[in-house]
Amino acid sequence: MREKTPRTRIQKKNHQTILEAALNVFSQHGFRGATLDQIAQEAALSKPNLLYYFPSKVAIHRALIDRLMTTWLDPLRELDAHGDPIEEILSYVLRKLSMAREFPRESRLFANEIVQGAPNVGDKISGDLKFLVDEKVGVIAGWSQAGKIASIDPYHLIFSIWATTQHYADFDAQIRGILAADDDAHFDDAAVFLERMFRQMLKP
């Protein structure tokens, strides 16, 4: 099989520029609302030039999701079955909150996809994500059965962590409007609140 010709520096730069532009557009408008014209304009490239790198809107979106899923799953992968149960779970909460702070566009991209029924990531949810969640649920269930944490449904614990951390990215405008926030100090307050709340919930 003939090997692909390595990308030039300009091609690599344009590829990355398109993905960054698409992330902005998809995170604001969702997959259905986004257009190739919008992405091309955001990237400051012509539409034919964009199509040289990606044959369709679906291809761009898929590339973003593939890149996102690796990053998105890392905080849960780090939950260590051999660590202190409560501290491991609290560290996961804080890692997820940190991601909401550092990667708000990625969070909104994923949220928009899920709200629309996950048409482009359904296989990943039922595949890599489910396998990882099931694995960590087994760890948390073991801690609970051993009396190291409170008796708790591990799946709903993970769902509640997602809900209370990703909210700060997905509903950023609402939070900033209510708090009249012009900086990220509320993330520090959220970290203190969530750590206290989950610690109380998890105490055996």
Short characterization:
The protein has 204 residues and is mainly alpha-helical. The protein has ten helices and no strands. The longest helix is centred in the first third of the chain and has 25 residues, at 9-33.
Fold blueprint:
Elements: H1 9-33, H2 36-43, H3 47-53, H4 57-77, H5 85-102, H6 104-115, H7 122-145, H8 154-170, H9 172-179, H10 185-202
Helix pairs in contact: 1-2, 1-4, 1-6, 4-7, 5-8, 5-10, 6-8
Protein name: TetR family transcriptional regulator
Pfam families: TetR_C_3, TetR_N
Keywords: DNA-binding
Structure description:
- The structure is a single chain.
- The chain has 204 residues and is mainly α.
- It has a single domain, classed as Tetracycline Repressor, domain 2 (Orthogonal Bundle).
- The chain has ten helices and no strands.
- α1 packs across α2.
- The longest helix has 25 residues.
- The radius of gyration is 20 Å and the shape is globular.
Shape descriptor reads globular
The first-level CATH class is given as Mainly Alpha
Rg estimate, integer Å = 20 Å
Number of domains: 1
Q: What share of the residues lie within helices?
A: over 70%
Order of helices and strands: HHHHHHHHHH
Structural class: mainly alpha
- Binned strand content: under 5%
Distance between the termini: 59 Å
Nearest-integer average pLDDT: 92
Number of helices: 10
Query: What is the correct CATH architecture?
Result: Orthogonal Bundle
Largest sheet: none
CATH superfamily grouping = Tetracycline Repressor, domain 2
**Fold-level CATH name:** Tetracycline Repressor, domain 2
Low-confidence stretches: none
Beta-strand segment tally: 0
GO molecular function: DNA-binding transcription factor activity; transcription cis-regulatory region binding
Pfam families: TetR_C_3, TetR_N
Keywords: DNA-binding
InterPro entries: Homeodomain-like_sf (IPR009057), HTH-type_TetR-like_transc_reg (IPR050109), HTH_TetR (IPR001647), Tet_transcr_reg_TetR-rel_C_sf (IPR036271), Tscrpt_reg_YcdC_C (IPR013573)
